Amino acid sequence: MELDSVMLSRMLTATTLAFHIIFATIGVGVPVMIAIAEFVGIKRNDPHYLLLARRWARGFTITVAVGVVTGTAIGLQLSMLWPSFMQVAGQVIALPLFLETFAFFFEAIFLGIYLYTWDRFKNKWLHWILTIPIMIGSSASALFITTVNAFMNTPQGFDLQDGKAVNIDPIAAMVNPATPTKVFHVVVTCYLTAALILAAITAFHILKKKSGAYHRKALRLTMVSALIFGIGTAVAGDLSAKFLAEYQPEKLAAAEWHFETETNADLILFGTLNENNEVTNEIRLPGFLSFLAGSSFDTEVIGLNEFPEDEQPPLWVHYMFDLMVTIGIYSLFISALFILFWLWKKCNEWNKLLLWGIVASGPLSMLAIEFGWIFAEVGRQPWILRGYMKVGEAATKADGVGLTFILFVLLYIILGTLCVIVLIKMFKNKPAEVELDQRFQIDDLHK
Amino acid sequence: MSIEVIGITVLWLFLYGYLIVASIDFGAGFFAFYAKITKKDHIMNDLISRYLSPVWEVTNVFFVFFFVGLVGFFPDTAYYYGTALLIPGSIALILLAIRGSFYAFGNYGSKDNIFYLFLYGATGLLIPASLSTALTISEGGFLLEVDDKVIFLAGELLTSPYSWSVVVLSIVSVLFISASFLTYYADRAGDIDAREILRKFALFWSPPTILASLLVFVGLREHNPGHFQNALDIWWMFGLSLLFFLMASYLIYIRKSLGTAFILVMLQFFFAFFGYGASHLPYILKPFITIQSGVTNPTMGTALVIAFIAGLFLLIPSLFLLMKLFLFDADYIKGNK
């Protein structure tokens, strides 16, 4: 591996995105959870849920701040690290980028209003209504920015003449073949991850300290949400695989170590590759890749050997794909199990093992987001604009990328650490029990 | 009007919006820190935080809007500025990141953390300085294109009197704009003590603002005579700017109509900023990009303008609501809500 400016630009972009995506995911998902909690709270006139919404919103402000600044960073780095790409593609994708900032603007305004008007309206529903533009804004910005990424995977809506984009159709570029599945997948997994992270925090608290009705309600609410979003994620994953089989077969083939084009193709779980690129130690599900690609064992799945060697993605993306899918299934399993135990009176849903399983699901689902994005991005190597421009042609020629890489890594380490410290302190200094007592005069533990 | 003129006007408006709201924010951070070390924080820091808390995120969006729009309307800028500004741009980004997140850490997390407040205050002065380099570079003479490589002449920039005059102007303007707004805000809150301190800040920074503007003109005459000549042709815009400045300073001095005074400050910078922008044309980045050569494809240009108008229908009422709740609501400003 040579540390030229192409490699360094890739490393810096990857680092910024990997860091930003944590906060972006929370930023898209948590407003939905806040809105649900406040809705239930007002509807049932239950202060527990209202406090839940408040406390989630308070922690959310910290993550939003880091999300905003890292989002600004990636926005500018796009031009600073990939100037040739932006010069060409900028013409075609300017519209969704522009719309994304509008959505962000909209969200920023209403988030500011929401956070500072908790007790200002006589009618409680008025305050709740403010969550709607926040959810629209955050989900819409995910939508628009994902169309840009979808465009890089399946570019359309322009012709390339002498290195310049002509005959541009902005809408066609936005609504490209990858857009529907990608947007659905991104948005629903953000919701799922946010639900599981909040569930994990609650479960951890229940395991470590005494807890009353407040924490039990919180866990039930987040687990029901997680189950619903988990089912959505499974559907999105299935649709994405079918999309890949049709439009980006080399990505699916690399993910599945599928070399020869064939029908009744096997699905490979885990395993390793030996030096002759033969799969060993794997769990083989006969015919299931065909089934995944086209809902029938007779579907022909294109193999990696059909592509020239310099247009094949690296084979290690297989692990990313497997890890993502495994964690996805685990999330679905753990939330279903909790709800099953809860409904089926004979079991105890506050079982320690189950709670630890929920604690694990939070960080795991965030990892799955990272793995999924790494798979999606590295899986389209060597292209930056699939079929049009390779990554090597797009990177900056300026000196000093190495230095900027180091500076940004330091920045992210500091921000990440402080963010965690500040969040922990914020909630330790004022536990929910104290706040319930102060704000609503409820003694939760001895009720 | 042609697409490129609409485009650059829209962008310039957003940059102007950023100039005003960010100046208030940057200056407020500095004043808050200054008040803390001179032990006057109990008088004015609550007031500052009451204004900043609901709006800091919105401030940031103005900036994002500007650069996303610039690359959208004029994709060539991504290539030249992107390559040239890798290091100064990254430094500005890191400062912005520190400032934004430390604001939240300090304000929502560990209140009264002097280190957070220091970073927040110091970056508030460094960011305008580093962002203003982009404007300086646009005057030409700081970039070289050899073969297909864009080279940024950092040494030239650091030794240029013009570049330093812009830096000085950006810093003192930030302090002046911010102090004149906060004077008005304190007055609305009926907080006489805070108003008196902030009024002193405003008056203190008022003469340097005009001195620095003159320095920029002198620097510009040396550095880019063509631009200077264009500026002379629309001298009346700068004349109006000076007039508004004098009126604003007078009102602040006599402690009357502080709201009007702030509007006059906004007008002062509006005319100076648009006068500067208009005389800069047709170049966006001399000599590489003019608004005609760099403009995006007409289809995309039209799409962007439509999106922009649709977006305004959403933004203007929302911004109005935000201002009504936090800027013009006397009870909120006084801290009763």
TrEMBL record, chain A:
Keywords in alphabetical order: Cell membrane, Electron transport, Heme, Iron, Membrane, Metal-binding, Oxidoreductase, Transmembrane, Transmembrane helix, Transport
The protein's predominant localisation is membrane
EC code(s) of this entry: 1.10.3.-
A single GO molecular-function term is: oxidoreductase activity
Q: What class of enzyme is it?
A: oxidoreductase
Membrane-crossing ranges are: 17-40, 60-81, 93-116, 128-152, 183-206, 218-237, 323-344, 353-376, 401-424
Report the superkingdom from the record: Bacteria
Question: One short Pfam family name for this protein?
Answer: Cyt_bd_oxida_I
Q: Where, subcellularly, is it found?
A: Cell membrane
* Membrane topology summary: Multi-pass membrane protein
Family of the protein in this entry: Belongs to the cytochrome ubiquinol oxidase subunit 1 family.
Q: Give the protein's recorded name.
A: Cytochrome d ubiquinol oxidase subunit I
Automatic annotation (TrEMBL), chain B:
Protein family: Belongs to the cytochrome ubiquinol oxidase subunit 2 family.
Recorded topology in the membrane: Multi-pass membrane protein
Q: Which residues cross the membrane?
A: 6-34, 55-74, 80-102, 114-137, 162-185, 197-219, 234-254, 261-283, 303-327
The question of whether Cell membrane is a record keyword is answered with: yes
What taxonomic lineage is listed for the species of origin? Bacteria, Bacillati, Bacillota, Bacilli, Bacillales
Q: Which E.C. number(s) belong to this protein? A: 1.10.3.-
Protein name from the UniProt record: Cytochrome d ubiquinol oxidase subunit II
What would you give as a GO molecular function for this chain, any one?
Answer: oxidoreductase activity
Leading EC class: oxidoreductase
Q: Where does the record place it?
A: Cell membrane
* Keywords associated with the record: Cell membrane, Membrane, Oxidoreductase, Transmembrane, Transmembrane helix
Cite the Pfam families for this sequence.
Cyt_bd_oxida_II (PF02322)
Q: Tell me, in one coarse class, where this protein mainly resides.
A: membrane
